[in-house]
UniProtKB/TrEMBL annotation:
GO biological process entries: DNA restriction-modification system
Signal peptide: none
Keywords, ordered alphabetically: DNA-binding, Endonuclease, Hydrolase, Nuclease, Restriction system
UniProt cross-references to PANTHER family, sorted A to Z: TYPE I RESTRICTION ENZYME ECOKI SPECIFICITY SUBUNIT, TYPE-1 RESTRICTION ENZYME ECOKI SPECIFICITY PROTEIN
Family per record: Belongs to the type-I restriction system S methylase family.
Gene3D superfamilies, per database record: DNA methylase specificity domains
InterPro entries, per database record: Restrct_endonuc_typeI_TRD (IPR000055), Restrct_endonuc_typeI_TRD_sf (IPR044946), Type-I_RE_S_subunit (IPR051212)
UniProt organism field: Bacteroides cellulosilyticus
Keyword Cell membrane: no
Location of the Type I restriction modification DNA specificity domain: 71-246, 302-483
UniProt GO molecular function: DNA binding; endonuclease activity
Keyword Magnesium tagged: no
Protein's recorded name: Type I restriction endonuclease
Amino acid sequence: MDTKKLRQKILDLAIHGKLVPQDPNDEPASVLLERIKAEKERLIKEGKIKRSKKSGSSDTLHYENVPFEVPSSWVWCRLEDITVLIEDCPHTTAKDEGKGYPLVRTPNIGEGQLLLDGVHRVSKEVYDKRNVRAVPQVDDIIYAREAPAGNVAVIRENEQVCLGQRTVLIRPMNTLIDSVWLTYAMLTPYSRNHLISKATGSTVTHVNMASIRPFDLPLPPLSEQHRIVAEIKRWFALIDQIEQGKADLQTIIKQTKSKILDLAIHGKLVPQDPNDEPAIELLKRINPDFTPCDNEHSRKLPQNWCICRLKDLCSFLSRGKSPKYSENDKTYPVFAQKCNFKDGGISLEQARFLDPSTICKWSETYKLRTGDILVNSTGTGTVGRTRLFHESYLGQYPFVVPDSHVSVIRVIDDIIPQYLYAYISSSFIQRYLQDNLAGSTNQKELYIGVLENLVIFVPPFIEQQRIVQKIEELFTSIDEIQKALEV
């Protein structure tokens, strides 16, 4: 379920008068608009507000070419008709002073509410200077004129804030306009698309005040505004529950996959077959002088399993090389950390390319092949990330080689690479790798020696096949559930 589109649909129904039923006993919006006009005239005479500069005549309430039809009790108006203030922010920037009054910039304007975590703060002097034309207050609306253009938030907290650059203060008519309704109305697809389509600018586009003040808006009766707000909040609360449920389920899915791998590498995912050739025989066939490791884990593993070091299972185990890059020739890609995606998978789209004159320095051994296990070996946040390479990732490229920040694990024929990939990807081993990193906080490094001496639990070859098959079967089912969540 696409909850973002669902929210937009609810707002779209609301702006078209289709979210809640109309009540014939409601005071028509045309009467409400006359009351607003009269109240504004009173405030102007008393000197409490100034008469706005009209961008066009708003006295005519009949629109011959309305954007869309609305219920008969509604009326089309301009945004400036139902507000007492639409004020642009100062066009200067203000530095973050770390304490004082919140400075609401466009990143602090969410979809309906202010996002004040990590907000910049300014002194009383800056606060007074920036708010000289208008002081934001509770129930005022702040509109983002540039990225993320179209976001609108209502001030609900009784906290003194000031406007950052490219923001607009909108003050609805007190008691005659529901400020939350107006916030939702400006978040609708109609309002967003209409105003953003008026945006100008080259490097950074922004919505001009000349487009905001005369913006055409359908106005429902005040009682219906309240009902619309209540219904939107009810639906949004349900959607919040769905999103939280999806987030919880995603966490469960991640934990389930981790548990499957943990069971697999400890011999608890599939049953053992006493007729399988023991792993010790497999390893001695590879190396007649092989001596199994003995540690506390050996007593907890199935009888026909064996423990060895990673280097005992590899035909190639090495970091890549530091390449000389070409800025023009795009023939021979170099596999770097960023080619191992955070959320899974491999892509060469972001790869840089070898200088063709240096190809002779790279032996065939360094060219990645199907079954190679790739481990990011440097970088905070990325080190230890493990992926399984397949030649299909090459696409049109003849080959790819790893740079010095990626380690390549290539196993011998009697070890199934998918099993070893699952083993190294398990949380059990990933924790071990993280605990054995070297370097500073800003540049962690996984030395090749840590990988070489990594303890591996080796099942019989036939059981490796059963484990890999079972993991693929379970992961496929889980991935289908995950895809269903994203529909």
